[in-house]
């Protein structure tokens, strides 16, 4: 899963919460709504809309990932992701594209991996916002919507994030959502021929509920 990209900081938007929670976590990620956005469960057909945005090298300043080589490669990747499971069947994959309601534009994606089918109660999150939409509060709003789903519908007890130590924008954004740095990994990744150091950040259910007034 890709690492969080550079994004701006804005005040959180409360997600629209479904009061009638299902008796068990959903097998596939449900569609989500926030104030300005619709989060659509990722499918193969989204590759056409996502390809141009994912080709922007600015997205990968703090990530070891590379832009997709072509549309066929991206479609193949999405075909696997859209199954909702890792190849060994152990992990749940929840991926949403971010669509702006006012004009239908695709702005990026948010994603979460739930280890052991969600039994661990922990979700590792990631997100990418296309550069033309940075510093507009899009990331904060979309991540807030996703976190609401993870804590409410998937019954997660904790959300984790791994962020390059140089990625000040992402660190500020996550801190604003209640995440705390709990660890640092030296040489956690390598890209552009140089080692990259990473912070591990955690947001637990109690802190999330306190921050959202639940």
Describe what you observe in this structure:
This protein has a domain at 32-159: Aminopeptidase (3-Layer(aba) Sandwich), CATH 3.40.630.30. It has helices at residues 47-54, 71-81, 138-152, 168-176, 205-212; strands spanning 32-33, 37-41, 92-100, 106-114, 122-129, 158-164, 180-191, 194-204. It starts with 31 loop residues before the first strand and ends with a helix. It has 214 residues and is an alpha+beta fold. It has an eight-stranded mixed beta sheet, sandwiched between helices.
Defining key terms:
214 residues; Acyl_CoA_acyltransferase; 5 helices; N-acetyltransferase; transferase; acyltransferase activity, transferring groups other than amino-acyl groups; GNAT_dom; Aminopeptidase; alpha+beta; globular; single chain; eight-stranded mixed sheet
Radius of gyration: 16 Å
Q: Report the uncertain regions.
A: 1-23
Oligomer: single chain
Overall 3D geometry?
A: globular
- The order of strands across the largest sheet is 1-2-3-4-5-6-8-7
| Secondary-structure element order, N to C | EEHHEEEHEHEEH
Distance between the termini: 30 Å
Average pLDDT metric: 86
CATH class of the domain at 32-159: Alpha Beta
Beta-strand residue percentage:
25-35%
Structural class: alpha+beta
**Helical segment count:** 5
CATH topology of the domain at 32-159: Aminopeptidase
Largest sheet: 8 strands, mixed
Q: Level of helix content?
A: 10-25%
Number of strands: 8
| CATH hierarchy: architecture of the domain at 32-159 | 3-Layer(aba) Sandwich
What is the CATH homology-level superfamily of the domain at 32-159?
A: Gcn5-related N-acetyltransferase (GNAT)
């Amino acid at each position: 899963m890709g690492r969080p990209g550079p994004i701006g900081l804005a005040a959180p938007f409360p997600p629209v919460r479904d009061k009638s929670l299902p008796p068990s976590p959903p097998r596939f990620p449900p569609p989500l709504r926030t104030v300005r956005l619709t989060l659509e469960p990722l499918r193969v057909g989204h590759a056409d809309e996502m390809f141009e945005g994912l080709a922007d090298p600015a997205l990968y300043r703090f990530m070891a990932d590379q832009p997709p080589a072509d549309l066929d490669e991206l479609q193949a990747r999405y075909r696997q992701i859209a199954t909702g499971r890792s190849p060994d069947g152990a992990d749940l994959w929840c991926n949403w594209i971010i669509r702006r309601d006012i004009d239908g534009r695709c702005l990026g994606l948010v994603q979460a991996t739930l280890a052991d089918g969600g039994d661990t109660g922990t979700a590792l999150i990631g997100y990418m916002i296309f550069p033309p939409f940075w510093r507009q509060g899009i990331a904060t709003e979309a991540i807030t919507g996703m976190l609401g789903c993870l804590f409410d519908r998937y019954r997660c007890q904790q959300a984790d994030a791994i962020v390059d130590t140089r990625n000040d924008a992402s660190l500020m954004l996550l801190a604003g959502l209640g995440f705390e740095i709990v660890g640092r990994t030296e040489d956690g990744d390598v890209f552009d021929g140089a080692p990259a150091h990473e912070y591990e950040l955690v947001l637990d259910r109690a802190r999330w509920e306190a921050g959202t007034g639940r």
